[in-house]
UniProtKB/TrEMBL annotation:
Reaction catalyzed: N(6)-[(R)-dihydrolipoyl]-L-lysyl-[protein] + succinyl-CoA = N(6)-[(R)-S(8)-succinyldihydrolipoyl]-L-lysyl-[protein] + CoA
Database matches in Pfam families: 2-oxoacid_dh (PF00198), Biotin_lipoyl (PF00364), E3_binding (PF02817)
Database matches in Gene3D superfamilies: 2.40.50.100, Chloramphenicol acetyltransferase-like domain, E3-binding domain
Full protein name: Dihydrolipoyllysine-residue succinyltransferase component of 2-oxoglutarate dehydrogenase complex
Subunit text: Forms a 24-polypeptide structural core with octahedral symmetry. Part of the 2-oxoglutarate dehydrogenase (OGDH) complex composed of E1 (2-oxoglutarate dehydrogenase), E2 (dihydrolipoamide succinyltransferase) and E3 (dihydrolipoamide dehydrogenase); the complex contains multiple copies of the three enzymatic components (E1, E2 and E3).
PROSITE patterns: BIOTINYL_LIPOYL, PSBD
Swiss-Prot/TrEMBL cofactor(s): (R)-lipoate
Lipoyl-binding domain ranges (all copies): 1-76, 100-175
The EC number(s) this enzyme carries: 2.3.1.61
Native organism: Shimia gijangensis
InterPro entries in alphabetical order: 2-oxoacid_dehydrogenase, 2-oxoacid_DH_actylTfrase, Biotin_lipoyl, CAT-like_dom_sf, E3-bd_dom_sf, PSBD, Single_hybrid_motif, SucB
Family: Belongs to the 2-oxoacid dehydrogenase family.
Pathway the protein takes part in: Amino-acid degradation; L-lysine degradation via saccharopine pathway; glutaryl-CoA from L-lysine: step 6/6
Length: 498
């Protein structure tokens, strides 16, 4: 018997969620055939079969959270029917033969671990057909409709509207027998008789109706599916107050003017659960601030020579190499040049040791729809301009598509962060631990500069180097930044290795 275990997930990643099993107990598997897919807060990891055989028992089911080296399943040799336990579908009676089928939360997508039940289209006791929509879930990205896995009768709802469910939760039960389970969850999911509606009103609206003594049936809801919102109750309260005032005894003392009902700020807020990727970004950035003695030094660079060189050769460059000539290759080359002179910026601290890297694995920060990632271009110091541009383009495309592997985001020694693409004029980048340096690039902006006693307009960019002051002194940081500035203002220095 061969054990299938969670592979190494990457630097600082300690757990993953089992997203999908491609094999079930009893299936034959070949060496390196994909068995399952794990989702971390950064990427999706496929788990191959370590040996050929028959799929035995699955220890970690879909939706389970597992740590590094945790046991996922077993592979055994021999006949498939004899080697593995009976599949779950055979162990339990099918719905068609009078059994029940659980309705589970479907796969929600990478980095999405929970959802909110927004609407039920069916009630307990309703007949449903296979693939008929039962309910709708809302995540921080999309709405997901949940179809019926089989035909039968909806006998139990275990997650009512408004409930937050994780990726492996049970939503309901469908039975062919039609016997409705008398459970608290089923009762809670049934429509409240007082309102004669199948939708839940806003909590603030229920509270206000109770305070005002307003019958919910007399309020017209403006929310989704007719939900009563607080504004609807406030509008209905005005005629009621006027009617009460009209029938009040004439001798009654005049009531003090009542302040209008203030708008509930909470009703105008939107609360969205942070994704696992966003939680990891937040944790790592805060850890960086807490651990490193981080300091930032600034300079500015005249981009005129680089822009002129790029404009002169960009068409020939793209025709020959099949990739556009951008600014990132110039900055990568300039940084590699400066790191050779100031190696501590390319080093890291390991306990009481300083580890100097005699190579440059350049991290290039990239914004994606799910958050910030930093793919690494390995041995960037040995690459040509064309190789660097091709690598940046390919990594950026994979980052936007969510296809980066853990290996592609590990081992960086220095990082470039280009906030200028978003219009940033100045910022202080945060270190990407365990690295000791990160260069922030910014927007190129025409500014008046004094050159040889004359004021001229030049395309200028602010540069910001954040560094770990535990290993990099101020002299080294300033020297590094000056060398980058010199290489960009006179790109010929890169050719002459000056």
């Amino acid at each position: 018997m061969t054990e299938v275990r969670v592979p190494t997930l990457g630097e600082s990643v300690t757990e993953a969620t089992v997203a999908t099993w491609f094999k079930k107990p009893g299936d034959a598997v070949a060496v390196d055939e994909m068995l399952c897919e794990l989702e971390t807060d950064k990427v999706t990891v496929e788990v191959p079969a370590p040996s050929a055989g028959v799929m035995g028992d699955i220890v970690a089911a879909e939706g389970d959270t597992v740590g590094v080296n945790a046991l996922l399943a077993n592979i055994v040799a021999g006949d498939a029917a004899a080697a593995a336990p009976a599949p779950a579908a055979e162990a339990a009676p099918a719905a068609a033969s009078g059994g029940s089928v659980d309705v589970m939360v479907p796969t929600l997508g990478e980095s999405v671990t929970e959802a909110t039940v927004s609407s039920w289209f069916k009630a307990v006791g309703d007949t449903v057909k296979q693939d008929e929509m039962l309910c709708e879930l809302e995540t921080d990205k999309v709405s997901v409709e949940v179809p019926a896995p089989t035909s039968g009768v909806l006998t139990e709802i275990t997650a009512a509207e408004g409930a937050t469910v994780d990726a492996s939760a049970k939503l309901a039960v469908i039975s062919a027998s039609g016997v409705v389970a008398s459970t608290p969850a089923a009762v809670a999911a049934a429509p409240a008789p007082a309102s004669n509606k199948d939708v839940e009103n806003a909590p603030s609206a229920n509270k206000l109706m109770a305070e005002k003594g307003i019958d919910p049936t007399s309020v017209q809801g403006s929310g989704r599916d007719g939900r009563i919102m607080k504004e609807d109750v406030a509008g209905a309260a005005a005629p009621v107050a006027a009617a009460v005032a009209a029938v009040a005894p004439a001798v009654a003392p005049a009531a003090a003017p009542r302040a209008p009902v203030s708008t509930d700020d909470a009703a105008r807020e939107e609360r969205v659960k942070m994704t696992r990727l966003r939680q990891t970004i937040a944790r790592r950035l805060k850890d960086s601030q807490n651990t490193a003695a981080m300091l930032t030094t600034y300079n500015e660079v005249d981009m005129g020579e680089v822009m002129a060189l790029r404009n002169q050769y960009k068409d020939q460059f793209e025709k020959k190499h099949g990739v556009r000539l951008g600014f990132m290759s110039f900055f990568t080359k300039a940084c590699c040049h400066a790191l050779r002179e100031v190696p501590e910026v390319n080093a890291e601290i390991d306990g009481t040791d300083i580890v100097y890297k005699n190579f440059v694995h350049m991290g290039v920060a990239a914004g994606t729809p799910t958050g910030l990632v930093v793919p690494v271009i390995r041995d960037a110091d040995a690459m040509s301009f064309a190789e660097i541009e091709k690598a940046i383009a390919e990594k950026g495309r994979r980052a936007r598509d969510g296809k980066l592997s853990m290996a592609e985001m590990q081992g960086g020694t220095f990082t470039l962060s280009n906030g200028g693409v978003y219009g940033s004029l100045m910022s202080s980048p945060i270190l990407n631990p365990p690295q000791s340096g990160i260069l922030g690039m910014h927007k190129i902006q025409d500014r008046p500069m004094a050159i040889n006693g004359e004021v001229v307009i030049r395309p200028m960019m602010y540069l910001a180097l954040s560094y770990d002051h535990r290993i990099v002194d101020g002299k080294g940081a300033v020297t590094f930044l000056v060398r980058v500035k010199e290489a960009l203002e006179d790109p010929r220095r890169l050719l002459m290795d000056l």
